Amino acid sequence: MISGTRYRLTAEINRQSDLARDIARAQMQISTQKRILNPSDDPIGAARVAEIDRTQANEEAWLRNVETAAALAARADTTLEAVEKVMVRAQELMVAGASETLSDENRATIAAELRGIAEDIASLIDTRDSRGALLFSRGDALEIPVNSGLRIAPVASQADIFENIATAGGPADLVAIVNTAAAALTEADPALRKTAIAASIEAVNDGSAHITAARAEQGVRAARVDNIRERLTESDIQLTELRTDIESTDLVKVIAELEAKKLSLQAAQAVFARVNQNTLFDLLR
């Protein structure tokens, strides 16, 4: 009889313990709003969530790189805009300097402004980014990884933008073109000066056109960076929604089950206490 009583007591205690565990689990699901608390709750779902976690972690790193690329692209565009403006001014000065009515002093003043423009361009070429590195690299263009197997160059190199500019006199760099134009204006021999000015006007026009094209290309680079950023952002939203669908709990259902189990446990405990009070006393005695 005692063995049977102990068996019933043990079974009831185990049942109530199971109810208590279910209640604790339901409370945890409600507080975390997740139905998968342990991999054993849903092995397939847990595996999918882990895979999503890895993908999101990778894409978060890619997105940080993309943000860096976007900042570089924006700074490069601002810098090229400044170069473009001073090159337009250089064109205006060369047209003005070609006038044969100008005095030597007038041409010297224009030449001085052109040399100042050349210095400004040289300074802009050496612009630094937020890391302190050259914005326009002297070697190959900086490439940044933005996805598995994908690297992009948000900014072209110095050589591509400011050097090897096609002119009638052969490839030249932008600073040299402007400095040569300044020198042409101060040539003492009138005939040589006229020829030099004409050649420099063409070279300055070539340089200006080259910078305009380089800025347009920079816009294409920036647009590509924006597209990649948009894709990664959209992917993160989709993955977050998918993860939520997999692991989120149905609050209405869980709360209903929780209340039912709490009532069951309370009722079982009350009945257990009344029915077995003498039995428990006897067993303890």
Describe the protein.
The chain is mainly alpha-helical. The chain contains 8 helices and 2 strands; from the N terminus they run H-H-H-E-E-H-H-H-H-H. It folds into 2 domains: 68 residues; 181 residues, f41 fragment of flagellin, N-terminal domain. A hairpin with a 2-residue loop joins strand 1 and strand 2.
Topology summary:
Layout: H1 2-32, H2 43-97, H3 104-125, E1 144-147, E2 150-152, H4 158-162, H5 174-185, H6 190-247, H7 251-275, H8 277-284
Antiparallel strand pairs: 1-2
Helix pairs in contact: 1-7, 2-3, 2-6, 3-5, 5-6
Protein name: Flagellin
Keywords: Bacterial flagellum, Cell projection, Cilium, Flagellum, Secreted
GO molecular function, one term: structural molecule activity
Keyphrases for this structure?
2 strands; two-stranded antiparallel ribbon; 285 residues; mainly alpha; f41 fragment of flagellin, N-terminal domain
Question: What's a concise summary of this model?
Answer:
The chain has eight helices and two strands. It is mostly helical. It has a two-stranded antiparallel sheet with strand order 1-2.
Q: Pairing-aware structural class of the strands and helices? A: mainly alpha
Taken together, the total number of domains comes to: 2
The CATH class of the largest domain, by name, is Mainly Alpha
Q: What is the chain-wise order of helices and strands?
A: HHHEEHHHHH
The CATH architecture term of the largest domain is Up-down Bundle
Helix proportion range:
over 70%
The radius of gyration is 38 Å
> How many individual β-strands?
2
Q: Shape from CA axes?
A: rod-shaped
Compute the separation of the termini in Å: 15 Å
Quaternary assembly? single chain
CATH superfamily of the largest domain: f41 fragment of flagellin, N-terminal domain
Strand order of the largest sheet: 1-2
Query: Number of helical runs?
Result: 8
Q: What's the story with the biggest beta sheet?
A: 2 strands, antiparallel
Instruction: Please report which band the strand proportion falls in: under 5%, 5-15%, 15-25%, 25-35%, 35-45% or over 45%.
Output: under 5%
Average pLDDT score: 84
Low-confidence stretches: none
Protein name: Flagellin
GO cellular component, one term: bacterial-type flagellum
Family: Belongs to the bacterial flagellin family.
GO molecular function: structural molecule activity
